[in-house]
Amino acid sequence: SMSHRDVATVYPPLAIGLFSIAARLPTPLYTYKLLLVLLELLGCGLLLAVAARWELPRWRALLYLWNPLVVLEVAGMGHVDGAGLAPVAAALLLLAGRPSRVAGAGLAAAAGVLVKLVPSVLLPGWARSSSRPLRFLVAALLPLVAMAVPVLSWTGGVPPGLIEYGVSWEYNGPVYEPLWRLLERAEAGPAIKAGLSAFESWTGRHELLEAVYPFVYPQLLAKLLLAVALAVWILRQLRVSDPLLSAASVLAGASLAVATFYPWYLLWLLPWAVTLGWWSWWIASLTLPLAYLPSLFGVEYFPWVYLAIWLPPLSVALWLRRPRRRARGKR
């Protein structure tokens, strides 16, 4: 059976194409998972090439391939996110090559977005770090626009599935979960409504903000704050000239800013975090399967499951960033 049948799909065309190919072959589910594993193995080969191109230890890339989370979510659960590694890695290799390959990098980046929308946050930084920004953007945006126009024409605007996902879905966001609870305890919603009411009284235009009141609640306020923070973070990363570091930094920021973070979402960041030696995210790959406990055993998610998932990687991140003690005296 398929979950969330009532929600219009948010998957882009390449993902839907992969689903359709598997559905037309014998044993569709196993065929689909086999296709994902083959694409993941291709991506891992390209990840090794990225490690070599950036002169990083290749054994780190192998840590991604051997990670239990990757096996569970790709071969076990069949999440399409496993198909995203190959196009993103290809884009990185092409960006690091000759200027004549920039258009190919744009096409590879577009292919990643057409698997899932996650790599779209990488396009500004990659255009900025490429030797031919305009060529990269044209090559990336043309296929995206060509695929988007029929969808937007059919739905009459933003696809309803995306709207429902953005407004209603929330689970395991590393910053979001404590943030909305903090806003609720601080009574941020009533305070904002009181300010809006005072503004209406001052202007005498009571109809202006009536449509805003239903959306003033802690969860949506937290999402808006995190969206603004992510936009600022992406703009700051435009100064990073290394496309690998830019991609990893933006994906890390996006991972912290989302309201929904299922275990398989980490597959977009994990290859680059592990290759760069960001070990807190590797620890997160070991603790994230705990997010299944509430649905499997009815365990209450917040605060204990939340803390079990996110406290270990946070502790490792803080420990690795601790200031080095200077040796006292001379030996």
Provide the succession of SSEs: HHHHHHHHHHHHHHHHH
Overall geometry comes to globular
How much of the sequence lies in strands comes to under 5%
Largest sheet: none
Category from helices, strands and their pairing: mainly alpha
Radius of gyration: 22 Å
Total helical elements: 17
| Mean pLDDT metric | 92
Distance between the termini: 68 Å
Helix coverage percent:
55-70%
Give me the secondary-structure topology:
Blueprint (H helix, E strand, L loop, with lengths): L12 H11 L4 H26 L4 H8 L2 H9 L8 H11 L6 H14 L7 H7 L3 H23 L4 H9 L7 H10 L2 H16 L14 H19 L6 H15 L12 H7 L2 H9 L5 H5 L3 H20 L11
Helix pairs in contact: 1-2, 2-3, 2-5, 3-14, 5-6, 6-8, 7-8, 10-12, 12-13, 15-17
What does the model show?
With 331 residues, the protein is mostly helical. The chain has 17 helices and no strands. It starts with 12 loop residues before the first helix and ends in an 11-residue tail after the last helix.
